[in-house]
């Protein structure tokens, strides 16, 4: 009898403990999901709002009962956005200038980082702090000397000296040309280059030196070692830098707006979208806000697709490199 | 340890060096090699006959210089010294040109033989950077623009006085002298504007005519046409048009906060900061200013004709939840994003009301065009501006939603103008955000207005000191 009572007591205690465990697990899960939903909503609600507004007609914007779901999808906003932004031309300009210079940076920053990570040279102590400065000094502080430099481009004053000798102004005007972006990218001092170099350095320091030493023993020089050994071993870092570089260049509009008078990329068109809507068809366009929102969607769509395709690799690479952009 | 300290010292030194270099970059004082007016005068004298426009005629002016007179169909007459033909005028614009503006430029080029080169920033927010970088790079741009919200910072930094520039005739009645006078510095003009130009933004009171008629309330236009449109009759209208419609609160006046509060102070002939053409003074203790702000606050809190929380916006005017609202004339246009042309109700506008017994003047957010330092074709720029800003060179009537709005715009363009320079001075000093100041004042009740205003006293005094120093230098 006593044994049975003891057994029941144990079972009941076990059950209670089990229930408590399950209950606490459920509570934790509910809390976790609630938090995730809350954070997810905070992050995604602006995107949902843009999608919703991009499909609203002017009547929907004026109708206070319409909040999230439009009465009917007004696709004309997208057609108007394509026209107002001159989308395909602007997309091509985006690919030719900012995106291409972003890709150039992926290569040049890798080369610079390899030198910093692997070679000891006397100037390193000066150059490394300078590298940090390129991250610390904001673009708005440097745009003026940069603009002057590109407007009267001169190789260390050499062209001016030659020009003075022959009585002609030989300085080159690079404003309104892609070189304002390509040149700094080629020399590793482009948009956010400092940060990309740091990402590479961080990663390259983790690659065993023995691999390179083996290559040197086999007679490979620094360039060959970099191409044959370092590049194939750094796919994770290259992917991280590529994605960050392309996306940040894609979004860049401040310098593009200053350096380019025509052939503007998408980011510049978007930064001025309300003005463009008024100028290109203010009285015929149904909803200015709707078209502006559709333009936002068209702007982020290529990047979104690019990110979704590379999402898994990107997260994996961010884990390995240990830097979040 | 010592190594680490040295490294930090080196880093700090380098950072300081880079920052100092950035600050001084582009500040070189090398004398610009200008084209002298007389130099190209001589150059062009021989070749001028070949480039005369098809519809132009040739005669001589008082100075004995040959001029080309051409008359556009329905447009203004352009008198151009022949020496200017073949020259180029370069203008920095803060947005892409409108079709109408581009057409006007094309016509000007054809009629005068002067080439016009326009560089624009795609984003108005970076217009200041465009001007400063073009000047630093000595690109030789001739024309740029400044608003009253850029005064006195932008004109003193980048523009030159216009009084000594050949080509500007300030006796010409087309110039909007009453606007230009408000932004003179030490007796000299720095910018020009033309009465009724495409870029003129007068401040007016929009009202929903249909709603007024439906409720049998006398409209602001009726008051204005009988010469009785003032703050008292405005308040009568606002009270009569404040009601509840099926549970929805309809306000007589859309009393938006932020800087719109300055419309009322401008109308009362006062301002937060005064400017007499050579000196700025803070005016926060002015009883007229305080009374005006109290009147504004009473609209929401005492008379309850406007939303005391300032939550109503332009969409509420469109949906009929607000009967009147004050704004620049931009929404009068068909291409405006306020889309009043899509409303089923009829919209009208009248000038902003003045206090009872005060002379009617037009309030304006000014847009002045000036000649940049280092300009290379100052006279050509003067001739171009006179043409480019002249409304006679545009089909102005095609811009307005209806005839009433056009007539109000035209009436405003003929009145004496009044401009507020406070926002520009406060912006220049970067002490406090003027929009926030106005917004905070707008939310107070009348009994707190004076105290709230005085809480910004030191900010305004510093702003005034900085602005005075800028125009002295």
C-alpha end-to-end distance of chain A = 68 Å
Q: How widely separated are the two ends of chain B?
A: 49 Å
CATH class of the largest domain in chain B: Alpha Beta
* Helical content of chain B (DSSP H or I, runs of 4+): 25-40%
The global form of chain A is flat
Task: Offer a few descriptive terms.
A: 325 residues; mainly alpha; 16 helices; B: 473 residues; D-Maltodextrin-Binding Protein, domain 2; 7-stranded mixed beta sheet; 18 helices
Can you offer a commentary on this structure?
The complex is a heterodimer of chains A (325) and B (473). Chain A has 325 residues and is an all-alpha fold. In chain A, 76% of the residues lie in helices and 0% in strands. Chain A is flat. The model of chain A has no long low-confidence stretch (mean pLDDT 85). Chain B has two domains: 61-199 and 366-398, D-Maltodextrin-Binding Protein, domain 2; 203-365 and 422-472, Periplasmic binding protein-like II (D-Maltodextrin-Binding Protein, domain 2). Chain B has helices spanning 2-24, 37-45, 99-112, 127-136, 153-158, 177-182, 209-214, 220-225, 231-240, 261-267, 287-301, 314-318, 378-388, 403-414, 422-429, 434-443, 446-454, 457-472, and strands at 56-60, 66-71, 77-81, 88-93, 115-120, 143-147, 159-160, 201-208, 243-245, 248-254, 273-275, 280-282, 322-328, 347-351, 362-365, 367-372, 417-418. In chain B, strands 8, 9, 10, 13, 14, 15 and 17 form a seven-stranded mixed beta sheet that branches. In chain B, helix 15 crosses helix 18 (457-472). Chain B is globular and about 65 Å long. Residues 25-76 of chain B have low confidence and may be disordered. The chains are: A mainly alpha (325), B alpha+beta (473). The interface between A and B is large, with 46 and 42 residues.
Describe the structure in brief:
The complex is a heterodimer of chains A (325) and B (473). Chain A is built from 16 helices and no strands.
What topology does this entry show?
The complex is a heterodimer of chains A (325) and B (473).
Chain A: H1 2-54, H2 58-62, H3 76-85, H4 87-118, H5 124-136, H6 139-151, H7 158-166, H8 179-186, H9 193-204, H10 209-217, H11 222-233, H12 235-251, H13 254-259, H14 266-271, H15 273-281, H16 288-321
Chain B: H1 2-24, H2 37-45, E1 56-60, E2 66-71, E3 77-81, E4 88-93, H3 99-112, E5 115-120, H4 127-136, E6 143-147, H5 153-158, E7 159-160, H6 177-182, E8 201-208, H7 209-214, H8 220-225, H9 231-240, E9 243-245, E10 248-254, H10 261-267, E11 273-275, E12 280-282, H11 287-301, H12 314-318, E13 322-328, E14 347-351, E15 362-365, E16 367-372, H13 378-388, H14 403-414, E17 417-418, H15 422-429, H16 434-443, H17 446-454, H18 457-472
Parallel strand pairs in B: 4-5, 10-13, 15-17
Antiparallel strand pairs in B: 1-2, 2-3, 6-16, 7-16, 8-13, 8-14, 8-15, 9-10, 11-12
Helix pairs in contact in B: 11-17, 15-18
